[in-house]
Amino acid sequence: MKSKLAGLILMLVLVSGAIVLLQREDSPGTVEFAQGEVQFNRDIRPLFSETCFNCHGPDEHSREAELRFDLPESAFSERDGGVFALVAGSPEKSEAWKRIVSDDPDLIMPPPDSHFNLSETQKGTIKRWIESGAKYQDHWAFETPRKAVPPVADRAGWDRSAIDRFVLARLKSEGLSPSEPADKRTLIRRLSYDLTGLPPSLEELYQFLDDDRPDAYELLVDRLLDSPHYGERMALAWLDQARYADTNGYSRDGARTMWVWRDWVIQAYNEDKPYDVFLREQLAGDLLPDATQGQIVATGFNRNHMITAEGGTIKLENLTNYAVDRVKTTSEAFLGLTMACAQCHDHKYDPISQEDFYSMFAYFNTLSDKGIDGAGGKNAEPIIHAKSPLHHKNVDTVRDTIEFLKLERQKRASRLRSDWESRERESLEQLGQDLAFHEFKPLMVNNPNIPPSMVEFQEEAAVFLKQQSIAPGGTFYSFACSLKEDPDSLITGIRIEFLPHPEVNEGSLGYGKEDELGAFGVSAVSVSAGKVPVADFDLNSEVALKDATASYSHEEYPARAILDPRWPTAWSPLGQVRKSQHLTLTFEKPVDPREAPYFSIMVNFQQIANAGYFKMMAMTGKDDGTNIPSPIQRILNKSIKERTQSEIVEIANYHELHDPELESLNTDIATYRRRLSEMTEPYPVQVMDTAKNPRKTYILNRGSYDQPGREVEPGVPAFLPPLPEAAPGDRRALADWFTDPSHPLTSRVAANRIWQLFFGNGFVSTSADFGAQGEWPSHPKLLDYLAVDFIENGWSVKALVKQIVMSQTYRQRSEVTEEQRSIDPENRLLSRGPRFRMHGEFIRDTALKASGLLNDWIGGSSVKPYQPRGIWREISHYGSVKDLTQVFVQDQGRNLYRRSLYTLWKRTSPSPSMMAFDAPNRELCVMQRETTNTPLQALTLLNDPQFVEAGRVFAERILQALVDAADRDRVSLAFETVTSRLPRNDELEELVKALEEQRVYFERNEEAALAVLGVGEAMRNSRIDVADHAAFSVIANLIFNLSEAVTKG
């Protein structure tokens, strides 16, 4: 059976690998044009830009022979010796042509050392252009778009939409015909992904299949556009362009809080905020008259850049880098220009001078930001505190849910307390079976801020801290320890017992006075083990911690705060500080004391106060996460009649602490409380704010912050339309200039980007570059038509989206014919419907929705679903600091299953599964993601706990829905749920055969079956047969791996 299982895994990899073949046909590429009149913009400018402009283009510093091929007056002017680079109509008299065809290495152009070569076809194109008069054209993208009259269409159904008429005319000119319309199953799946990022449910699928109304498709479009998930889908691409992340980047990569801005983006798309307003508020919302809180939040767009808080950096250098990033992002996202190329010198290909760059830079160089800021998980100023715009409607529902869960918790606790007496000794003693504790002897301590005399090691292996010593950010004590006696077994964790001391606040545990006399708090504990005693914590020999429990925890100060850096408080036994308490931390993997006899234990006391007197111990024995403390064991040794009321309550509380059902309820209550806070409380957001004394802006020599040249004022590139006379030099005037209806780029770039969302490529495939290096549009008149129409429809994004998805062009079948593969291999002519591999976010969300695990809450803070342990540690320099992004602590409960849009984005270590599917790190603006197809993607789908868990929960869902059904029916339902179509007979036979093989294997290997069913935190229905459940889980995972499951077609 092992060979059969290996064969199945190979089949999975091969099936996933088939993505390569399907994607390759629609990957980006250049557009081939039919023979005809040679046009400068379409045919010649790209050649000159690639091979000539580097030496004969806009950049005067690299220009040779004072010759420019981007300007006709230079190209046609007389040169030394009476020669002309170009002579209209005469290649033989054109010096440029002579050099292009020369064999002399000293004369040939491009020169050999440039490593540029012109093909014979390209040479022929240049010759034909010269022969036809060498007519120059202004760059098409820098001319105001005009709305051409759509061609007449002679194909039924293709005459109602301007999109279809332009596309049909282009296809006919290339000798092609459109593809047939896709079937209804394909259309609803395509539409659902494109408008919500989620697959349709079976209920939605069959409603559409059964809807025979002539406008059924349009009604479906309208329903999906009205879905709150539409805003999430549209926001995903904008977050790439806005380089949104939850961390600052650079070496430390500390946390920031910007999710309220993300919520603003989602809401803006859902309410169809006009694009000109969307742009204006993000560039200058703070400068608008009577600016609302939402308009100020919108300016977070240009505070999403990386920020450093690292010592030793130079403030002015950082401020320069931030402003450069804002110019780059703003110019790419809204203008489709690579202005950053002019930071150090004039642009080599486009007419963007260095002065143009720094004139634009001046708009973004006036902020009140500090340059070095954002340490300790705090936002970098300027900031405001604002509520999310999304969460006003469901507040009462969330409150009601919290009260319901609290009632359920109370009921469960009452049931536990009613029967604990009859089974308490057996159950509790069983929990602690084989546990043993061994005292550590502290050898040395490291705390540079505390005098050594303040720390005393006492004979009974205890540590006595003689005074309160909390610094503003908390106080670390790092202890080097050895075991007093060598244990005979592996060490599975540590325990710290805090004991009352007569010299500590009248015999209590800690030095706290404000919250409660004698309180203390522990916010972090780190452990390392090695062969020599080291007081400094050693990150290289760190022991990963899996769990934290305590003898008692205050509700607001739970033990899990130790391991969860997002938790705003520390662990504290507040309310029980006059009796001994303990904190137990279990290891991810046991430690062999023979290999590592010395431990470094670093404890961070924070927020409340530090403890006074405590012991540290190693734990050996069964690692079950319960670790019964000695006070509980002492109570157990008494008969029930001998126990005091407080001891009875203490035993009951401890039993409740380890009840799985109560633990789940507590997790849900904490999740909903966090949700309620996000819905009702203001949170910090980094925003734009003009300084009272703005910095002056200078042209920086070679882009260096410390080499200022001539001072410049705010302004726009000289080659584009000018600002109105007397326009102020602020961002509001810049935003007005961007959104002027006559601007040649803004609406074009926006229309192109929106088209790209649905077809994989825009009309201009280089969506970040509409300049000379950019690609000629595949359908220039259609692009201009949509750009103008976009403005005429009030800049409505939803109207443009609807216009696209209602077209016959969009509704075509995506299967490729041999003729199309030959003439239109990359679908640039739009001879068929869009087909390409989806983003990783869509793929993960599909698995979550199919399994029923998806938590579809809209908006809110970022979450941390499954990812491999230890990845953040590889790049963390501050592993124990109470910071959101230094130590990865996985979320629990519903937050594990939120949409991928909300996954916490750490710039130096983004989600590994999303990175496998080409997600950017968001350090910079990204207008279009790369699309690759690699075996790593198939392996991710096979092994990522999120997909394995989704597979087993999906299997459980199918098995419970069809209890007595045949395998064929169950497999068919699973296949249809994921792909929205019924499997063919041959596909069904293969899947049923694989299911039978897996069932036999798991019947003989129960341990393997339980391993599959044990992945993930979702509870399993134990009434389902183990082998059957495991076998179907593998089949469910196989279906998730199908090329069709990860491809929009």
In angstroms, what is the radius of gyration? 33 Å
Report the helical percentage. 25-40%
Distance between the termini: 36 Å
Number of helical elements = 36
- Binned strand content: 5-15%
Structural class: alpha+beta
Residue-averaged pLDDT, rounded? 88
Number of beta-strand segments:
17
Q: Would you mind describing this structure in some detail?
A:
With 1049 residues, the protein is an alpha+beta fold. Among the domains are: 2-24 and 942-1048, no CATH class; 40-136, no CATH class; 227-257 and 835-930, no CATH class; 274-387 and 682-719, no CATH class; 433-627. It contains 36 helices and 17 strands. The strands form 4 sheets. Strands 2, 3, 4, 5, 6, 7, 8, 9, 10, 11 and 12 form an 11-stranded antiparallel beta sheet that branches. Strands 1-13 form a two-stranded antiparallel ribbon. A two-stranded antiparallel ribbon has the order 14-15. α8 runs antiparallel to α24 (780-792). The two termini are 36 Å apart. The model is unreliable at 1-34 and 623-627 (pLDDT under 50).
